[in-house]
Structures are given as C-alpha cells and as structure tokens.
UniProtKB/TrEMBL annotation, chain A:
Its EC number(s): 4.2.1.33
Species of the source: Nocardiopsis kunsanensis
Function: Catalyzes the isomerization between 2-isopropylmalate and 3-isopropylmalate, via the formation of 2-isopropylmaleate.
Keyword check for Lipid metabolism: no
Protein name: 3-isopropylmalate dehydratase small subunit
Subunit comment: Heterodimer of LeuC and LeuD.
Aconitase A/isopropylmalate dehydratase small subunit swivel domain sequence ranges: 1-117
GO molecular function (one): 3-isopropylmalate dehydratase activity
TrEMBL record, chain B:
Gene Ontology BP term (one): L-leucine biosynthetic process
Highest taxon, organism lineage: Bacteria
Assembly and binders: Heterodimer of LeuC and LeuD.
Keywords, ordered alphabetically: 4Fe-4S, Amino-acid biosynthesis, Branched-chain amino acid biosynthesis, Iron, Iron-sulfur, Leucine biosynthesis, Lyase, Metal-binding
Keyword Cytoplasm: no
Gene Ontology terms for molecular function: 3-isopropylmalate dehydratase activity; 4 iron, 4 sulfur cluster binding; metal ion binding
Manner of cofactor binding, per the entry note: Binds 1 [4Fe-4S] cluster per subunit.
Binding locations of [4Fe-4S] cluster: 347, 407, 410
NCBIfam families, sorted: leuC, PRK05478.1, PRK12466.1
Organism: Nocardiopsis kunsanensis
Name under which the protein is recorded: 3-isopropylmalate dehydratase large subunit
Catalytic activity, EC: 4.2.1.33
Length: 195, 467
C-alpha cells in the first residue's frame, strides 16, 4: 500500500447525492478476478452521457473527487475503491460516506475525508469556476486547503498512522498470533465448524 | 452494567484490545462466494499465506450461476472464470465448497442458516453486504470488503471499530397479509437509507417477536438498506426450534448448554441504546417502492409521490430523478403500475416460507398475459423442499418459470436480467438504477405482493384477488 501524507491535485465536482456502489462500478465489472484495471468500469453508465463530468476534458487528470452526501451506499464491493484508485483518485471528499465504503477506502489507501456540506458546496463552486484549482489534502495536519478553504477534518489516530506508514492490516494482525491462539483455546466446545 | 445484545456478542469476541487501536475481533463463521473472494485468495498466494481456519470457512457459488441448464458450461466466459477460480481456490486452500448442482448450493445467506451454521452469539462475516441476514439469530453478522475477506482468511480475526446501537421497536400485531418485508420497507422509508449509519439495529417488540425465523431474516437482511452495519433479533424459542436438528447445530447435551448460553444474550433490562425508533404494527400495510432506492417506498394503497412534497432539496431532486428513471408520474396510484416481470427469490425472500406464501396466492391462478414470472429458490435444498410440497408444480401450472438456485435477477450477473425499460415487481432488496439489468425498473415488494402482482399484472396485494 502506498504511503499517504500530503496530496495536492486538481479536483472533480460530482454533484450527486446517494451515489451507490452500483453507480461507482456496475455489477458486471465485478466478474473479474484480478486486482487492477478497473478504471474503465468507474461510473460506466453515467459515462455514456457526453456531458458527465468524467468526460469533460477540463477535469481530466483529477486526483480528488468532491462528492455529494451519502457517497458509496449500497453493496459492499471493494471494486468501487479500486475503480476510483485505478482511475487516479487518491482522495474523496463528502459530507457523508456509507460505512462499508469508507472502511474499504481507508484500508485500501484511498483517503475519504468528511467535510461539512457548506465546504463541499464551496469547493464545488470553486472548481467549477476554475477547473485548474488545486486542492491540498494534508493527512499530517488533518487539513484540507484550497482557495478560501482551510478546514480541518477528523480521522482517528490509528487509521491515520497506518495510512501515513502505508501499512497493511494483515501484517499488523499477524504480530498477535499468540493472542489469537489463546482466544481460540477458550472458545465454546460446541461452536459451529464447517468441516 | 446493563448491556445490549450487540455489546455482549462483541465483548465475547475481543481477542485483543489496546489503546488507540480498533478491537481485534474473533470471527466464528466466514462465508465465501465467487465474486468478492478471488482477489483475497490472490493476496494470500502473493504473500505466501494460508487460510488459518478452513473449518470455520464455507463457500458457495451464487451470484453468477445460471438458473437453467446447469449441466451446460456457463456461457458467459467471465462468470465461468469466477466460478472456476473459486473452485480452484477452495481446493488449493482446503475450504469446503458447495458448487452448482450440489444440494447445499445456493445464495450464501440462505446456505448458512439452513445448515445450522448460523448460531446465536456468533460473529459471522461475508464479503457481501446482506450478511446482516444472519443477525436474525442473534449473531453479530456484517458485510466486509475483499481486503477484509483476505484478513479473515489469513487470521480469523478483524480489527473493528465499535458500533453504535439502535433499537427499532415494532409494537402490536401485524394485520394478515402484511409481512416482514413490509415491516422493513416501512422502517427504511421512515429512517431513510442513511438512517442506520454506523449502527447495529436491534429489532424488538411484539410484532418482531411473533415473526417466524425466516421472516426475521428478511428484516435483518435489509438492515443494510437503512445504512446499518448489522441487524439483530434476540434469540428465543423460535430461534432454538429452527436450529435444533440441523446438520451443524450442537447435538444432545451440547444443544442444551448452547441454549442456556443463547438465552443470556438478550439485551439486559435497562441497557441503553444510542438511538431508538418506534413503529406500530397498525401503521404497516403492504409496502412497495416507487423510486430508485429502498427508502423511496409507500403503502400499496398510496400513490407515486409528488417530488414537490419533499421539503429537503436533495430528497426532492432525488425523487425527480427517480421518477424520471422509473417513468412514473406523481399521483399515479401504485395499484395502476403495470409490470412486465415478477421476480420471486433472493436472500431477502427466497426461502421456503416465501415460496409457500406466494404459492398459496397463485394456486389455481395464472400469471397474467404478457407478464413473465421467475421463481428462483434461495438454495437447491429450498427447491427440493418446495418440490416435495408441490409448490414447484403450483408455480409451473400458473405459468411461472421455476428455476434453479442462485442470486439470479436480484442483481442480474447471470443471464436473468431486465431489458432496458422493463419493469419488475421484485422480492429482492435493491431497486437501484440498472440493478436488475441496464435500464430496468424495479419495484421492491413482498412475496405476497409479488404473487398477486403476477396474477393481475399490476402492483397488487392478495386482497385484490379475492373478488
Ligand atoms: S440474492 Fe441478491 S442481495 Fe442476496 S447475496 Fe445474492 S445478489 Fe446479494
């Protein structure tokens, strides 16, 4: 997993609320068994419309997505995170994320940042007026900076540390194998087994 | 201190707790299917890791499987590849798999309970959001992403941040003809698709307690559509009777010990929830959705709402967009909405009781002209049971297609899809744009409403058939 400390990049305004994961990446793309190459599935249905924001040349190369509230609702597909990352996004800003999506994104190294809706609206207007505007997302200071915006955000210390270090969860947990084995020895004798 | 059920199950599974870190939670049962697991197994292979507890892991094929001609190879090469990849992964890593054609093959959330693997007080995970289904037994069950699937495979644990708790109480007794699907659609319409955000919902109250086990699963299944991480219902006699005798249930004296423990799981008197919602059963009638998220629902007696009636501007915009997509006009009575397709199935309503309820309505009746009805059992065992009871024959005589088990038109990853512009009444759980096929329009309904709708061709309840 790549380390994340401070990221500066141009941003794409996605003026839609309740963007569910079926829209982020339609189910048909989930059929793949690989872990990369999902950029073509990102918002595949909406991209069929020429004026959809992803098709607008002025936003090509954006690395920050500014989304409406309740981003990532619906199915738990992690492909939604991969599709956003494979397309080139490193950060999604929204006033509310669906839990599973948020969990998936932070584990996978896509930073999802909660901002007040007024700030989101302000950023929308800013990048719509000037698509070359750069937004800085600073995980060290837990701050978003852009013209007219200097907003701190919350992220728990543990998640932040992991992202800063680029640490993968499994390696962290395997350091506690003894504790897992000890827990297992105390499980109920009739706990269900599949084999 | 008085604790909620969710807190008890959580605390019972903490392997490790350290300041500033998420709790490391032990996972009792890991359900695996072909869509969200390939990259997890790929990750294990790349890192040279193994599956820590194959004996707590079970896999089935569901999302991609065709529901006809099982003996022919899967036509879609990508679907075939996912299924083949799962088979290879299960064989390489020693995981029990129920492949197509096996009696215990089916939708993963139907398979766990039917084998007796889903038990009260356990932690259950699956790379699928409707894992919340298993909470109906008093398990803490939640959907996870593929990297978490990999984590559970490698360590049998998950680092987790604690949930908040919400009580949804449904007082009183449901009217006949009103089902648990109507309860959960009404709950979601009330609290919204984000209303359960961050919560484990515990469903309680008289109307919930009197539900059968399978009806409880329908309620918990759709917790995720309210944004919740999980839904739970306290285990009681209904739960114990359902589990008793199943192939993986505790046997003999173990069962009695288990029941003693299971009884201790219910939320303590005086325990506090972070949020509470109360509904009365007499407010709940057959419910249908009109829009493109499960919160956009009304009673079947109602009509398509006017977007202008929504005070919140984003709800209004969402309603306008939904009506446009659904090709509906404000004010149209829901009963006048005609469908092309009826889908009875899915992990929400593809169990034997659902099929019984629908068959009861359809017995001696015909599917309306111009309507196709797909009946897709949740598992092959459900199919066998239904055939033994003669339900399959009822569906076929009515002119419905009686298929093999799988997710099918719930999400249209197999050939069972809506064509653009087609409209369905569906017992599944999601009416998102394109969910059942590109350009398809979905109305979520209960099995009773699905059956009556198939007969009349417009959204209907069994009461509409009486005259
Ligand atoms: S039946 Fe539908 S909701 Fe259930 S697991 Fe399958 S695709 Fe998901």
């Amino acid at each position: 997993m790549d380390k994340f400390d401070v990221h500066t990049g141009r941003a794409m305004p996605l003026r839609a609320s309740n963007v569910d994961t079926d829209q982020i990446i339609p189910a048909v793309y989930l059929k793949r068994v690989s872990r990369t190459g999902f950029e073509d599935g990102l918002f595949a249905e909406w991209r069929k419309e020429d004026d959809f924001v992803l098709n607008r040349p002025e936003y090509a190369g954006s690395t920050v997505l500014i989304a409406g509230p309740d981003f990532g609702t619906g199915s738990s597909r992690e492909h939604a995170v991969w599709a956003l990352q494979d397309y080139g996004f490193r950060v999604v800003l929204s006033s509310r994320f669906a839990d599973i999506f948020r969990g998936n994104s932070l584990k996978g190294g896509l930073l999802t940042v909660l901002l007040p809706q007024e700030v989101v609206e302000h950023l929308w207007r800013t990048v719509e007026e000037d698509p070359s505007t750069e937004i800085t997302v600073d995980l060290v200071e837990r701050e978003v900076r852009a013209p007219g915006v200097h907003e701190s955000f919350e992220l728990d210390d543990y998640t932040r540390w992991r992202l800063l270090e680029g640490l993968d969860d499994i390696a962290l947990t395997l350091r506690h194998t003894d504790e897992i084995a000890e827990f297992e020895s105390g499980r109920k004798p009739w706990a269900p087994v599949t084999l | 201190m008085a604790r909620t059920m969710a807190e008890k199950v959580w605390q019972e599974h903490v392997v490790r707790r350290a300041d500033g870190e998420p709790d490391l939670l032990y996972i009792d049962l890991h359900l695996v299917h072909e869509v969200t697991s390939p990259q997890a197994f790929e990750g294990l292979r790349l890192a040279g890791r193994s599956v820590r507890r194959p004996d707590l892991t079970i896999a089935t094929e569901d999302h991609n499987v065709p529901t006809q001609n099982l003996l022919a190879p899967i036509a879609d090469p990508v679907s075939r590849k996912q299924v083949e990849t799962l088979r290879k992964n299960c064989s390489d890593f020693g995981v029990r798999l129920h492949p197509m054609g096996d009696i215990d093959q089916g939708v993963v959330h139907v398979v766990g309970p039917q084998l007796g693997l889903t038990q009260p007080g356990t932690t259950v995970v699956c790379g699928d959001s409707h894992t919340s289904t298993h909470g109906a037994f008093g398990a803490l069950a939640f959907g996870i992403g593929t990297s978490q699937v990999e984590h559970v495979l490698a360590t049998q644990t998950l680092p987790m941040e604690p949930f908040r708790t919400m009580a949804v109480t449904v007082d009183g007794q449901l009217d006949p003809g009103v089902s648990s699907k109507d309860i959960i659609l009404a709950v979601i319409a009330r609290i919204g698709t984000g209303g359960g955000q961050g919560y484990v919902i515990e469903y309680r109250g008289e109307a919930i307690e009197s539900l059968s086990m399978e009806a409880r699963m329908t309620v918990c299944n759709m917790s995720i559509e309210a944004g919740a991480r999980a839904g739970m219902i306290a285990p009681d006699r209904t739960t114990f009777d359902y589990i008793r005798g199943r192939s993986h249930a505790p046997q003999g004296a173990d069962f009695d010990d288990a029941v003693e423990y299971w009884k201790s799981l219910a939320t303590d008197e005086g325990a506090e929830f972070d949020a509470e919602v109360v509904l009365h059963a007499d407010e709940i009638s057959p419910f249908v959705t009109w829009g493109t998220n499960p919160g956009q629902g009304v009673p079947l007696d109602g009509s398509v709402p006017d977007p202008a009636s929504f005070e919140d501007s984003s709800a209004r915009a969402a309603a306008e967009k939904a009506l446009d997509y659904m090709d509906l006009r404000a004010g149209t009575p829901m009963r006048e909405v005609a469908v092309d397709t009826v889908f009875l199935g899915s992990c929400t309503n593809g169990r034997i009781e659902d099929l019984r309820a629908a068959a009861e309505v359809m017995r001696g009746r015909k599917v309306a002209d111009g309507v196709r009805m797909l009946v897709v059992p949740g598992s092959m065992r459900v199919k066998e049971e239904a055939n033994q009871e003669g339900l399959g024959a009822v569906f076929e005589e009515a002119g419905a297609e009686w298929r093999e088990a799988g997710c099918s038109m719930c999400l249209g990853m197999n050939p069972d899809q809506l064509a653009p512009g087609e409209r369905s009444a569906s017992t599944s759980n999601r009416n998102f744009e394109g969910r059942q096929g590109r350009g398809g329009r979905t109305h979520l309904v209960s099995p009773l409403v699905a059956a009556a709708t198939a007969v009349r061709g417009t959204l209907s309840s069994p009461a509409d058939l009486a005259q």
